[in-house]
Amino acid sequence: MTTSTQNPTKAQGDELREQVLAAARRAREAAAELALATRDAKDALLHAMADALVRRAPEILAANERDVAAARESGMAEGLVDRLSLSTDRIAAMADGLRTVAGLPDPVGEVVRGQVLPNGLQLQQVRVPLGVVGIVYEGRPNVTADAAGLTLKSGNAVLLRGSSSAENSNAVLVSILSDVVAEHGLPADAVQLLPCHDRASVKHLITARGLVDVVIPRGGAGLISAVVEQATVPAIETGVGNCHVYVDAQADADTALRILLNSKARRVSVCNAAENLLVHADIADEFLPKALAELNSAGVTVHGDERVVAVGGPNVVPATEEDWDTEYLSADIAVAVVESLPAAVEHIRTHGSGHTEAIVTNDVRAARRFTAQVDAAAVMVNASTAFTDGGEFGMGAEIGISTQKLHARGPMGLPELTSTKWLAFGDGHVRGAGAPAPTSCPNA
Amino acid sequence: MTTSTQNPTKAQGDELREQVLAAARRAREAAAELALATRDAKDALLHAMADALVRRAPEILAANERDVAAARESGMAEGLVDRLSLSTDRIAAMADGLRTVAGLPDPVGEVVRGQVLPNGLQLQQVRVPLGVVGIVYEGRPNVTADAAGLTLKSGNAVLLRGSSSAENSNAVLVSILSDVVAEHGLPADAVQLLPCHDRASVKHLITARGLVDVVIPRGGAGLISAVVEQATVPAIETGVGNCHVYVDAQADADTALRILLNSKARRVSVCNAAENLLVHADIADEFLPKALAELNSAGVTVHGDERVVAVGGPNVVPATEEDWDTEYLSADIAVAVVESLPAAVEHIRTHGSGHTEAIVTNDVRAARRFTAQVDAAAVMVNASTAFTDGGEFGMGAEIGISTQKLHARGPMGLPELTSTKWLAFGDGHVRGAGAPAPTSCPNA
Lengths: 444, 444
Fold this sequence. Notes:
Chains A, B: Belongs to the gamma-glutamyl phosphate reductase family. Chains A, B: Its EC number is 1.2.1.41. By secondary structure, the first copy, chain A, is α/β, with parallel strands linked by helices. Chain A has helices spanning 10-34, 39-55, 57-73, 78-84, 88-102, 142-153, 167-183, 200-206, 221-230, 253-265, 281-297, 306-311, 341-351, 364-373; strands at residues 111-116, 122-129, 132-137, 157-161, 191-193, 214-218, 243-247, 274-280, 301-304, 316-318, 332-338, 356-360, 378-383, 400-402, 410-412, 418-429.
């Protein structure tokens, strides 16, 4: 993320803060209207957004060309330039994404639980939108349409804070999307783009308590950590995956090889890729040579502990302490031999990021123990780590993969973008004088 | 909350930090064991804790006497001294609270959803403990037993940071409770009391990312706000209730009076008490004189807008701008006349704290609109605000009443003290090479 403003003056700083807070206030007003939109209205909106993106593709591509040219000029790495670049196909994919979200069930209004209390009061817990959702992301402009679709469908207003490298692309995208919102009789402020040239706009967004209901960072570990640490509005930690495949003593070696290769090498740059292999000592002599050779064929470098290095191979280098904690996102894997299942669990407890952990075993007790003791968003038994994905889990789409324990854990779809509200319907119901106060009331 | 340490040296500060982090690390180890405890084991533990509190009441009372004497000496207000004071009856009530929690269903292990994916992968989302829960609270020692019972039953370890005024009481209580934990073969570190003489211990607790999974402040608005703003671990905002009763044009006046009086005057010091009355202009002439007179009989001072002051009465004073935002927790109420239901909704949106809001009406459309547009943890139709309470809602007990939208909203019982985990059971399942990456992956 590049910033073009250095040392802004105090007055500029105050102006930026007011700009962000004013956007948040408008979003809050928009959210109040959006919360009442019917599913029909929201689905029609998303389809119209998809159509508008396709129809106005030339504008989007022209703006994107300016971003790409500026990025190349600033010396951006080609991999990042590729993520920034749009094409007719990529715009069509964005439009398809919006249509997919339109086809998903609307979580708003779902009755989560309900009962009639002994005194006759009718009680319901219903899903309601969160309100205003802030998304902080990096240089991929498709996140703009994706995040807007998911938040609007779940009845929320969205404040988008993208990378300055995608400034022109995002501005055109948001202008197209909010035009469509307004054409559908809904508040255009439901989708807004925040200033992206000063990191301070992120800070103002994530500290706007009372205006912003939740902030979701979508990006690398540095971005996520900065947002979560500085936010005073509730934040959801997403995406960092230091995932392990543990091959138990009772594993079938061929199954283990297939799962290892798929977990590691199917796509190396994604958060659900395995970054570590743990092998039970009892199966190491049989399994390790095959695993190292297969990883070598797949072009994967192995960062091994002493016993792995002893087996050796053209792709084996000694692991450093840092390797166990590294999310490579590349064709690398850290490999260790462990003495027991508890040792594997302990290794994962110490080094894992709580994303996805897999065991390969035919021992029911080992599977039971591993699933109970490993504390992660997803635990796989005899299956690839690559399955942790909102699409695979049947959610249709995801706004992120939460690695925290509060609110949502694992892939976050539409229901995870909602809160709940208790509704009680009475007939003049009052509470008895003798009834106790809520036990948690500080002043009761 | 009093602090006895002023300007601690840097070395003392580092030592305190290490002390809190070491406690959190031990709690994390304890949590890993506790997560595997069966319901039978946890219920037996809670019953034994209750028995131990009653059996060792003399020790608790002796320690509490020292706290109470010190509090009186320091000039603590009698109301606060009362909250600090324990008696045989209050200890019995703590024990009963633990037994009640023992009788509640165990949320851990509940299968929230489950399905077999099209590829045959068996997917389950199951409830798991949060892990380590931090509770920051004020001078009521009964919170110690209450919070310990709820967190242990839900499989969590708890770090208790109580007030220094209750230091001796809390130390004895926690020592009794952790003795019982150890006697039951579970880790004694599952219940720990943190140092309470320096506010910095709160800061170290709420910034222990990676060690503490959630922090819940239980106390007044100042404590809650300080914790939520400074925390880098996820926090849950609880308890502040600036609740409204709105009397609609179509209300039955007698029903409205009954609900108003119950909401305001049943107990004035609790978070679910009404602090505001909004009256539709069309019913004001009929309703206001009766309401002001009844509030006067109940000893409630009315802070009224111009039209309310014009009606007058011995208990009516003009409202200031601050009154609309004030959680009195006393025999006071702010009263305004509004021109319409939308004006009432707008007033509540501007001044409410998102706790509990009530409408009194016989108009179905008004009820529908109010419940849809008012954004609060609980919305009551023709019922008292006093019903927002975990006990009343059938949860059996509550750790707090969340006024935020993330994770839990409204009374928080045992399920709200859990997270979830996805479990996938396969038979060597791997993902196709052509399948897309998770859409949210920053590097995909």
